[in-house]
Design a protein that fits this description.
It is a single chain. By secondary structure, this protein is of the alpha+beta class. The protein has helices spanning 53-64, 88-103, 110-121, 127-132, 165-170, 178-197, 213-216, 223-232, and strands at 2-11, 20-34, 39-41, 72-78, 135-139, 142-146, 153-159, 237-240, 247-251, 262-267. Strands 1, 2, 3, 4, 5 and 6 form a six-stranded mixed beta sheet that branches. Helix 2 crosses helix 3 (110-121). The mean pLDDT is 97. Bound molecules: L-homoserine.
């Protein structure tokens, strides 16, 4: 039996739509062993092996290596909430791929895991930090892993309603203006530097997205009120985590946000990824 955990992730980081993400200290925990039949425990629907994202990803990893996907017995403790913008799908994808590798002499490198996981997820911004940890910049041509300054404090506002990523992608525009592209490129560079080098003056750049946040804020009914509350308490940046509904606060000192129908968790950046 192998035991391992996969970190939650906060993708996009405002200005880094589909290419930036960080791993956070909240984990889905897995126990996996080979078996004579498929057996799932702790998933939303343990009976539906056929449509299970963990099993699908395990089989994709086997296919990638042109090896047999032997049946598994899988136990999950899913601490990462579903459809809330904290990378719960990535946890299952990375969990399934990691299971195949670990049960077969660690036959996949992290780079190969990223290739398989990105093909399944469609974009790398959640799966990259789930695999590598830290702050990841990822696109189809490569990966850059960076260490976030440990002086930053991260807090997630987990609202009690879901936003489906598929729905949150439908509200986006297919084309963006050149001036918006320029704004996002420059703000992304400033924000990444601010995260790595604890530049408190420039961290606001992370909130200046023009590609997805203006459209998606409308899907999160508590965004504006909670944002005001967070800034009042000393937050330096308040953004949507992934495609929502969770929001991420970044501050230079610990803050505690209390709001109805919302769970607030102070988290650290996970520097190591799946393990
Ligand atoms: N980059 C993705 C999105 C993250 O914002 O749609 C959610 O999976």
């Amino acid at each position: 039996m192998i035991k391992y955990k996969v970190p939650a992730t906060s993708a996009n980081l405002g200005i880094g739509f589909d290419c930036l993400g960080i791993a956070l200290s909240l984990y889905d925990e897995f126990k996996v062993e080979e078996s004579d039949k498929w057996e799932l425990h702790g998933f939303i629907n343990d009976e539906d092996v056929e449509n299970n994202l963990f099993i699908h990803s395990y089989k994709e990893a086997a296919e990638y290596k042109q090896m047999e996907a032997k049946p598994l017995r899988v136990f999950v403790k899913d601490n990462v909430p579903c459809s809330r913008g904290l990378g719960s799908s990535s946890c299952l994808i990375v969990g399934g791929i990691y299971a195949f590798s670990a049960l077969n002499n660690n036959c996949l490198s992290k780079e190969e895991m990223l290739e398989i996981a990105t093909k399944i997820e469609g974009h790398p911004d959640n799966v990259a930090p789930a695999i590598f940890g830290g702050l990841c910049v990822a696109n189809k041509d490569g990966l850059l892993k960076l260490k976030v300054s440990n002086k930053w404090n991260f807090g997630v506002c987990i609202f009690n309603y879901e936003v489906k990523t598929s729905e949150a992608r439908k509200v986006l525009k297919d084309e963006i203006k050149r001036s918006d592209a320029v704004a996002n490129i420059s703000n992304a560079i400033m924000a990444v530097d601010a995260l790595v080098n604890f530049n408190v003056e420039n961290i606001k750049a992370i909130t200046k997205d023009t590609i997805h946040e203006p459209y998606r804020k409308k899907l999160i009914k508590d965004f504006e009120t909670c944002e005001k509350l967070a800034y009042g308490l000393g937050s330096k940046a308040f953004i949507i985590s992934g495609s929502g509904s969770t929001c991420l606060s970044i501050s230079d000192k610990p803050i505690d946000i209390k709001y109805p129908n919302m769970i607030y968790k102070q988290l650290k950046v996970d520097a190591r990824g799946v393990r």
